[in-house]
Fold these 3 entries.
Entry 1:
Amino acid sequence: MLPTPEQIREYIASNLACEHIEVEGDGSHFQAIIVSAAFEGKRPIARHQLVYAALGDKMKAEIHALSMKTLTPEEYKVNG
């Protein structure tokens, strides 16, 4: 069974403290906006690694592709 955007959102939220998460997708390809203070001072690759770590094995087994925009709370206020 393919995961839903809501399930992906819950997977991320349960393992990474986030102020805001939006996930859209069709079951195998997903797009996400993730806002977390954990991203402060980190480059984009390190931010993505935090999200991949939060997803764990689900990234290999259930999610075919995930494109993401990772923002700090301040960046989200400015850039939405």
Entry 2:
Amino acid sequence: MPKLYKRATATELRHLTKLGGPLVVSNLAVVSMGVTDTIVAGQSGELNLAGLALGSSIWAVCAVTLIGMLAAVSPVVANLRGARDEAGCARQMRQSVWIALTGGLLVAAALLAAPLWSQWIQTEEPVRRVMVQYLQALAIGTLPFAIGSALRGYCEGMAQVRPVMRIYLAAAVLNVPLDVLFVFGWGPIPAMGGAGCGFATSIVCWCIAIALYWHAGRDPAYRALDLKLRPPRPHWPTLKHLLAVGMPICIGAASEVTFFASLTLLLASYGATIVAAHQIGLSIGSVFYLVALALAQAVSIRTAQVLGQNRPKRARFVSAVGVGSGFAYALLTGAILIGFRDLLVLAYTSNPDIIAVARNLLLLAAAFQLVDVTQAMAAGALRGYRDTRVPMYLQLFSYWVVGLASAWWIGEHLWGVYGYWVGICIGLGTAAVLLLLRLWRTCGRQLDKRPATGEDEPRLN
């Protein structure tokens, strides 16, 4: 392990806090929209909550796929910014619009076709109807969601995280009255139940994209960026590089989300009560995980910046500090989940049957926080190194071979829904170990390439 220098550790913690603090707020704003959806839909009945649970699991796969396709923008821009290549940063942003347009249109088409493929999901017909209506409403906001993800990645790669934070906070506030309006109706707008959350989310996605476009086009921090409504001609080498880095991130991230979504679908036959409790447990866990994901984004950006400055030893140190701080955070959140699980569940529902299951699931959520946060921090550091292909294979193996198989077997043969959550812990734990080993190897290989100048000691700022 690299030696922990006190001054260097404090310096890197300040850098990660400066980057990660606004990212935490932005991610919490995003997840708060999902929490608001779940709470408001839950007040309109169990069927609406179950339909939203299934629909949001599928939307999570679509959203993470789009975010993953564009995930290369942030570390690539950060690396170029570290090398003071602002023109290169602007080129990455302009070309990423093509990826956003293509991915956004494909996902929108898949959501509009939900009535065709939703018959494969085994659940009650009223629940399926809510799910389909919710997904079709989300199709309206898919394209701005993709373009907004590209703009956000560019802004964060340029270390302009506070304006992004303010935009997402405003969006979270806007989502609350829109949810209430479309779920329960008012005046000429009819009550839509759980499906109304889809329309609220789509409107919010449009507002976020417009706000980010306005900010990126006017802030002097992006003086090299010349945004136009019409995208530039495709530059295939740039697109190829973005996809080479981003697609493995996309597949790896989507594999984790589809892992969770598949468990929700497998549990659909257990009934609306179990699905609702499962969704509440995931929703609460996601609030804490989004903080860790923001810290992982900060580690990725900081690592890429330092590598752009040709300081590989410092980059390894950043990775070590990031993983260590993430583990400490996971211990804290695990304690909160155990100590306050009753209050957390009551915020979602007053149904005693759902509460009984959900409060027990939060005990298991506290366990998988440790391994989930650790693997997220390791993956974030690897993205800073632009090492994404091998981590993708490690994630696929961990989630789909180890995690899903163990979850299904333990769930179906031993402990039901609790067995499925034990399988989650096993899959995420496998990913954490494998990604940490990969990070150690990647750091070492990068160090072997460094010039022996002695100018890269961690004690230097």
Entry 3:
Amino acid sequence: MKPPQSAPGTGAASAAWELLLPAAAAPARTRGRSLQAALREAVRSGRLAPGTRLPSSRDLAADLGVSRGLVTEAYEQLTAEGYLRSGRGAGTWVGAAARAARPRAHDLAPRSPGAHADFVPGTPDLSLFPRSAWAAAQRDVLAELPHQDLGYPDPRGLPRLRTALAALLARRRGVVADPERIVVVSGVAQATALLGFALHARGVRTVGVEDPGSPQHDALYTSAGVTAVPLPVDGEGIAMEPLRASGVQAVVTTPAHQFPTGIVYSADRRAALLDWARDVDGIVLEDDYDGDFRYDRAPVGALQGLDPDHVAYTGSVSKSLAPGLRLGWLLVPESWAEEIVERKRTMDLGHPALDQALFARFLERGDYDRQLRRCQRAYRERCDALVAALDEHFPGSEVSGIAAGLHVIATLPERYGPEERFLSRVAEAGVAVRPLSSCTHPRTESTETKRVRLVLGYAHVPPARIAEGVRLMAQAATG
């Protein structure tokens, strides 16, 4: 079988017809659809350029060894779709409407910088994900899940999961957890966006954020039309005088393990913060991003347990399982529940039901508690390895914050400054780090310091690589 020739004077490349040969050899019942798909792809890809005249249906059918009716039907279908154009007595031509598709999809997911050593905070060890236990839970759920549970879920989440989460949060974090006020969300990011939209709907246009703090909070509230107001953090938590003077009625906090400084809010500061919320009829937004990980003692309970009517509490599995699961929870005061649930409904009609049922199963049979213990052992070892490596290779450095979470703050001796030069040298050596200054709000007046202060993440770095990475960092800094 030879490929059909171009119509006289058209200049159509014979290579374009190669796409049609497999279609002509397809089984009889699918041959027509295959021919249409192959011809459509030839136009989309540009192998048949706009303005190319096609062979007559009789000639193309003869050359491909198929019936003329199949070719005629293909021409008519693609003409109706806009890929081809035709005129009585003028033949069939490639139209100009189609454009070549992009050759591939681009991956915009955040990735490791590809450094020899990566100490950028925020990422857990994804190799610790419990694949076997997760797969077993998935098999069980697929076998037992009622058909109706695959329909649109309650926007708050499956009752089974909300009940299991309420038990978990009450037991591990001291939360006053009513399953009716728990909303299953796509991570803390969606919880933050929901709260931002709810604040905006109530006429609130500003929200206080910790400074230094997570840059993510600023961006998420801004997307909801709410301006983030930076409020300084001292050794006990968010400073109360600036908070009172700011005029805000909502404030975002990380009281169990402040990000990034690593402090725990003192009992007095917690009490003062709740007094402020009651005085202004405001709300405290508690981000418990890594509250399960404390290495020297039991973690401090959540702030929400002290006043459920003035604290909205959120957390996720991003540090304990994997951020790619996009699975978290939001526990809201009763007076906020209806509008938050309605906003969740209009945003996405609820979290995927199968994922919810799977995680509920994972919680119910104790797999999640086992995973937390496994992560805690691994992360404690890596925290100790990082502190030891800093002590060896950066003598005189200070590590601040409590023994918890997935990062430390390291303040290096003055001889390693200034910061800009240090960061440049370390980057050239292939070591990725994050300066504490990157967590300071842009509107905050900077204070020059000769000492380099780093937020160093360790959870995703094996102990041996931690030691080697700190050695490379020291070598670059002194070279």
